[in-house]
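Run SigB/SigF/SigG family RNA polymerase sigma factor through structure prediction, thanks.
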Amino acid sequence: MTTTSALPARPADPLRMSPADARALSRPLFRRLAALEPGTHEHQYVRNTLVELNLALVKFSAARFRGRSEPMEDIVQVGTIGLIKAIDRFDPEREFEFPTFAMPTVLGEIRRFFRDTSWTVHVPRRLQELRLRLAKAGDDLSQQLGRAASEAELAAHLGLTEAEVREGVLAANAYTVGSLDLFTTQDDADDGRAPLERSGAVDPALAAVDDLASLKPLMAALSERERSIIGLRFGADLTQSEIGARLGISQMHVSRLLSRALARLREQLLADE
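Sure, done. The structure for SigB/SigF/SigG family RNA polymerase sigma factor is below.
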């Protein structure tokens, strides 16, 4: 049995290590962890060392939620739970860098924390999940239709009744509550318009920032050809036929590769909601 004295020393200050150094030290430790019996002192020691080496990943992820009302210490603690889950599931024999594998799990754990704690009015878990399904369906349909989807279209897409869709929309209103008086000033209080009519609109591009950050590590796991096709389709706005001509493959082959890559990305993103 491996003795404690043979185990690697923990880094003095892992947060000061460069990402490249942390990855280099983590690789042999993951192979060592896979060979140890879970629950033993040696296994726990190596596991804790990996947590310390990769804690910067949690700090980086948590910083994206700095503007929220919850204390940063709580967000880091929740993110660390996601890091531990990723360490336990990581297979060092697969051709993935650990940060690429772990980032979706860490972010998913933090998002679940906000999903479960940020409701201003308590609603049943069923309605919380319905809100998430409606939000995702609304995004998908808006891309297909070029406009916001109606209640009937959302209901047909999700296999729900329109009454269930309306219930989910009402439940979403309990997610955050703010006083409309915050939008009223002395100068326009008597202009005859409702406070909401005087408020500014939320920039829809803000939501894309979080989506792009979540998508980046997942894109890195795709093949070079899949990344190229996605870039040409959505970055250069080329048609599938144009992409096929540029890459020397058929339009049908482009369609299959694109559909497979997008389905994989969608599955991984939804798994971490």
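DSSP finds 13 helices and no strands in the chain.
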